[in-house]
Amino acid sequence: MTRKGIFLLGMMGLLISSCIEHEIIPAPTPKVDLKAYFIGDFNSATVEFTEHVLSYENVASKAKIILPSANSSAIYFSEMSSPEVPTSIKVGMGSVQWNASLSSDPPVSDFNEHFLNEDTPLYSDNGLAGFEVTYTDQFGVEWKSSEASLNAQNVTFTGIEQESDNTGDYSQFICNFDCFIYHYDAVAMELDSIHIQNATYQGWFQR
Length: 207
Description:
Elements: H1 3-19, E1 37-42, E2 45-50, E3 57-65, E4 72-81, E5 88-98, H2 108-117, E6 131-136, E7 142-145, E8 154-165, E9 168-185, E10 190-206
Antiparallel strand pairs: 1-2, 1-10, 3-4, 4-5, 5-6, 6-7, 7-9, 8-9, 9-10
Protein backbone atom coordinates (compact mmCIF):
# COMPACT_ATOMS: atom_id res chain seq x y z
CA MET A 1 0.00 0.00 0.00
CA THR A 2 1.30 3.44 -0.91
CA ARG A 3 1.96 6.16 1.65
CA LYS A 4 -1.01 8.04 0.22
CA GLY A 5 -3.28 5.07 0.84
CA ILE A 6 -2.04 4.66 4.41
CA PHE A 7 -2.64 8.37 5.03
CA LEU A 8 -6.22 8.14 3.69
CA LEU A 9 -6.99 5.11 5.88
CA GLY A 10 -5.65 6.96 8.89
CA MET A 11 -7.82 9.98 8.18
CA MET A 12 -10.91 7.77 7.79
CA GLY A 13 -10.16 6.15 11.14
CA LEU A 14 -9.95 9.54 12.82
CA LEU A 15 -13.26 10.62 11.25
CA ILE A 16 -15.05 7.42 12.37
CA SER A 17 -13.73 7.66 15.93
CA SER A 18 -14.76 11.31 16.17
CA CYS A 19 -18.35 10.37 15.25
CA ILE A 20 -18.72 7.83 18.07
CA GLU A 21 -20.82 9.29 20.90
CA HIS A 22 -19.47 8.60 24.36
CA GLU A 23 -22.08 7.32 26.84
CA ILE A 24 -22.65 9.65 29.76
CA ILE A 25 -23.38 7.70 32.94
CA PRO A 26 -25.36 9.81 35.41
CA ALA A 27 -24.22 9.99 39.00
CA PRO A 28 -26.10 7.58 41.30
CA THR A 29 -29.17 9.10 42.97
CA PRO A 30 -28.85 9.13 46.78
CA LYS A 31 -31.47 6.88 48.39
CA VAL A 32 -32.43 6.69 52.04
CA ASP A 33 -31.76 3.23 53.52
CA LEU A 34 -35.06 2.47 55.25
CA LYS A 35 -35.23 -0.45 57.71
CA ALA A 36 -38.11 -1.91 59.68
CA TYR A 37 -38.58 -4.56 62.37
CA PHE A 38 -40.91 -5.28 65.30
CA ILE A 39 -40.81 -7.61 68.29
CA GLY A 40 -42.78 -7.60 71.53
CA ASP A 41 -44.44 -9.78 74.17
CA PHE A 42 -48.24 -9.87 73.98
CA ASN A 43 -49.60 -11.40 77.19
CA SER A 44 -46.19 -13.15 77.38
CA ALA A 45 -46.42 -14.57 73.81
CA THR A 46 -43.77 -13.15 71.48
CA VAL A 47 -44.96 -11.39 68.32
CA GLU A 48 -42.35 -10.63 65.68
CA PHE A 49 -42.57 -9.01 62.25
CA THR A 50 -39.54 -8.98 59.96
CA GLU A 51 -39.32 -7.09 56.69
CA HIS A 52 -39.77 -9.32 53.60
CA VAL A 53 -40.72 -12.37 55.74
CA LEU A 54 -44.32 -13.41 54.92
CA SER A 55 -44.39 -10.26 52.74
CA TYR A 56 -44.24 -7.92 55.75
CA GLU A 57 -43.33 -4.33 54.86
CA ASN A 58 -43.29 -1.05 56.71
CA VAL A 59 -45.91 1.39 55.39
CA ALA A 60 -45.89 5.07 56.33
CA SER A 61 -49.09 7.13 56.23
CA LYS A 62 -50.50 10.35 57.63
CA ALA A 63 -53.77 12.00 58.56
CA LYS A 64 -54.22 15.74 58.18
CA ILE A 65 -56.77 17.98 59.87
CA ILE A 66 -56.99 21.05 57.67
CA LEU A 67 -58.30 24.29 59.17
CA PRO A 68 -58.46 27.78 57.59
CA SER A 69 -55.77 29.07 59.92
CA ALA A 70 -52.29 28.32 61.21
CA ASN A 71 -53.67 25.51 63.39
CA SER A 72 -53.86 22.69 60.85
CA SER A 73 -52.25 19.50 62.08
CA ALA A 74 -50.69 16.31 60.71
CA ILE A 75 -50.49 12.92 62.47
CA TYR A 76 -47.97 10.38 61.21
CA PHE A 77 -48.22 6.58 61.24
CA SER A 78 -45.84 3.70 60.70
CA GLU A 79 -47.23 0.18 60.23
CA MET A 80 -45.75 -3.29 59.82
CA SER A 81 -48.29 -5.23 57.78
CA SER A 82 -48.59 -7.93 55.12
CA PRO A 83 -51.10 -8.61 52.32
CA GLU A 84 -50.89 -12.31 53.24
CA VAL A 85 -51.39 -12.15 57.03
CA PRO A 86 -54.03 -10.14 58.96
CA THR A 87 -51.77 -9.55 61.98
CA SER A 88 -50.16 -6.09 62.04
CA ILE A 89 -48.81 -3.40 64.34
CA LYS A 90 -49.13 0.35 63.82
CA VAL A 91 -47.85 3.31 65.82
CA GLY A 92 -49.07 6.87 65.43
CA MET A 93 -47.42 10.10 66.48
CA GLY A 94 -48.86 13.60 66.35
CA SER A 95 -49.33 16.24 65.79
CA VAL A 96 -47.33 18.73 63.76
CA GLN A 97 -48.97 22.16 63.59
CA TRP A 98 -48.63 24.36 60.52
CA ASN A 99 -50.40 26.88 58.30
CA ALA A 100 -52.07 24.91 55.50
CA SER A 101 -52.77 28.09 53.54
CA LEU A 102 -49.02 28.35 52.89
CA SER A 103 -48.23 24.72 52.02
CA SER A 104 -50.00 21.38 51.68
CA ASP A 105 -47.66 19.75 54.22
CA PRO A 106 -45.71 21.01 57.24
CA PRO A 107 -42.27 22.41 56.39
CA VAL A 108 -39.42 19.90 56.65
CA SER A 109 -37.94 21.85 59.56
CA ASP A 110 -41.18 21.55 61.57
CA PHE A 111 -41.52 17.84 60.70
CA ASN A 112 -37.96 17.14 61.83
CA GLU A 113 -38.19 19.24 64.98
CA HIS A 114 -41.37 17.49 66.12
CA PHE A 115 -39.82 14.02 66.18
CA LEU A 116 -36.55 15.22 67.68
CA ASN A 117 -38.34 16.97 70.54
CA GLU A 118 -40.95 14.30 71.30
CA ASP A 119 -38.73 11.41 72.38
CA THR A 120 -40.88 10.45 75.41
CA PRO A 121 -44.43 11.44 74.37
CA LEU A 122 -47.64 10.86 76.28
CA TYR A 123 -50.20 8.39 74.96
CA SER A 124 -52.97 10.04 72.97
CA ASP A 125 -56.08 8.55 71.33
CA ASN A 126 -55.76 8.53 67.53
CA GLY A 127 -52.28 9.99 67.95
CA LEU A 128 -53.78 13.48 68.07
CA ALA A 129 -51.35 14.85 70.63
CA GLY A 130 -48.87 12.06 71.22
CA PHE A 131 -48.30 8.32 70.81
CA GLU A 132 -50.77 5.56 69.94
CA VAL A 133 -50.48 1.81 69.33
CA THR A 134 -52.90 -0.16 67.15
CA TYR A 135 -52.65 -3.96 66.88
CA THR A 136 -54.68 -6.15 64.53
CA ASP A 137 -54.80 -9.80 65.65
CA GLN A 138 -55.01 -13.02 63.62
CA PHE A 139 -58.81 -12.70 63.46
CA GLY A 140 -58.69 -9.15 62.09
CA VAL A 141 -59.79 -7.67 65.42
CA GLU A 142 -58.32 -4.24 66.18
CA TRP A 143 -56.88 -3.39 69.60
CA LYS A 144 -55.83 0.14 70.60
CA SER A 145 -53.98 1.89 73.39
CA SER A 146 -55.90 4.41 75.47
CA GLU A 147 -54.83 7.77 76.85
CA ALA A 148 -57.21 7.11 79.76
CA SER A 149 -55.65 3.77 80.71
CA LEU A 150 -55.12 3.33 84.45
CA ASN A 151 -52.29 0.89 83.78
CA ALA A 152 -48.69 2.03 83.50
CA GLN A 153 -47.64 2.84 79.94
CA ASN A 154 -44.49 4.36 78.49
CA VAL A 155 -42.66 4.92 75.22
CA THR A 156 -39.19 6.14 74.33
CA PHE A 157 -37.94 7.08 70.87
CA THR A 158 -34.23 6.61 70.14
CA GLY A 159 -31.98 6.39 67.09
CA ILE A 160 -33.84 9.15 65.24
CA GLU A 161 -32.34 9.78 61.81
CA GLN A 162 -33.83 12.33 59.44
CA GLU A 163 -33.01 11.99 55.77
CA SER A 164 -34.47 12.90 52.39
CA ASP A 165 -34.25 11.56 48.85
CA ASN A 166 -36.27 11.94 45.66
CA THR A 167 -39.10 9.87 47.18
CA GLY A 168 -39.65 12.07 50.23
CA ASP A 169 -38.56 13.22 53.68
CA TYR A 170 -38.24 10.60 56.40
CA SER A 171 -37.82 10.42 60.16
CA GLN A 172 -36.42 6.98 60.99
CA PHE A 173 -36.77 5.79 64.57
CA ILE A 174 -36.48 3.00 67.09
CA CYS A 175 -39.18 3.11 69.76
CA ASN A 176 -39.48 0.95 72.86
CA PHE A 177 -42.82 0.77 74.62
CA ASP A 178 -44.94 -1.02 77.21
CA CYS A 179 -48.71 -0.56 77.41
CA PHE A 180 -52.12 -2.18 77.50
CA ILE A 181 -54.25 -2.24 74.35
CA TYR A 182 -58.01 -2.65 74.41
CA HIS A 183 -60.95 -4.04 72.43
CA TYR A 184 -64.61 -3.85 73.41
CA ASP A 185 -66.33 -7.23 72.96
CA ALA A 186 -69.89 -6.32 71.96
CA VAL A 187 -71.10 -9.92 72.46
CA ALA A 188 -69.74 -10.35 75.97
CA MET A 189 -70.23 -6.62 76.63
CA GLU A 190 -66.86 -6.25 78.28
CA LEU A 191 -63.55 -4.55 77.62
CA ASP A 192 -60.77 -6.99 76.82
CA SER A 193 -57.10 -6.08 77.10
CA ILE A 194 -53.67 -7.28 76.00
CA HIS A 195 -50.52 -6.36 77.87
CA ILE A 196 -47.63 -5.44 75.53
CA GLN A 197 -44.19 -5.59 77.12
CA ASN A 198 -40.62 -5.18 75.89
CA ALA A 199 -41.80 -3.95 72.50
CA THR A 200 -39.25 -2.62 70.02
CA TYR A 201 -40.32 -1.07 66.73
CA GLN A 202 -37.85 0.13 64.12
CA GLY A 203 -39.58 2.06 61.37
CA TRP A 204 -40.08 5.47 59.86
CA PHE A 205 -42.52 8.34 59.40
CA GLN A 206 -42.76 10.13 56.04
CA ARG A 207 -43.63 13.81 55.73
